[in-house]
Design goal:
82% of the residues lie in helices and 0% in strands. The chain is an all-alpha fold.
Length: 142
């Protein structure tokens, strides 16, 4: 029982750190999106390339923080930084696709301002990303 409470407390702490990383990533993503969208006026570039570039920048930022802070206890000399980065990018790409579907619907179909549509779309991937990272990317070694 005590071990389960300790694990729950530890998981809650890790999720809190993950949440802080997410907030930073959210800010990075939206800052890059905002800056690029103010200078790019092509609807195709705004719809697909700007969100992709802002996502990749935030993803890399989040990976660095996750690797060195959130899951620092799970780093090992046997799993390379680059290998985990590739896995991280692949697994976070699934919610990115979902996010892009939501973004396009909000931005192109409903006409919601791009930065607002981007913010709403980002929120959908947070929980999914945490559990993928917890169970696969930074899984506990036996």
């Amino acid at each position: 029982m005590i071990n389960k409470l300790y694990n729950l407390r530890f998981l809650t702490l890790r999720f809190s750190k993950f949440g802080m990383v997410g907030v930073i990533g959210y800010a990075v993503d939206n800052l890059i999106f905002f800056l690029l969208s103010r200078y790019i006026h092509s609807i195709a570039v705004l719809t697909f390339l700007v969100p992709f570039f802002s996502y990749e920048t935030a993803m890399f930022n989040n990976y660095i923080l996750s690797y060195y802070w959130v899951w620092k206890d799970r780093r090992s000399k046997y799993n390379s930084f680059i290998k985990k980065l590739v896995y991280y990018n692949i697994t976070t790409f699934v919610p990115f696709i979902f996010r892009m579907v939501i973004f396009v619907q909000l931005f192109r179909v409903l006409g919601i301002e791009g930065i607002i549509a981007n913010m709403i779309a980002i929120l959908f991937g947070v929980i999914f990303n945490f559990f993928v990272c917890e169970k696969y990317i930074f899984k506990k070694r036996k």
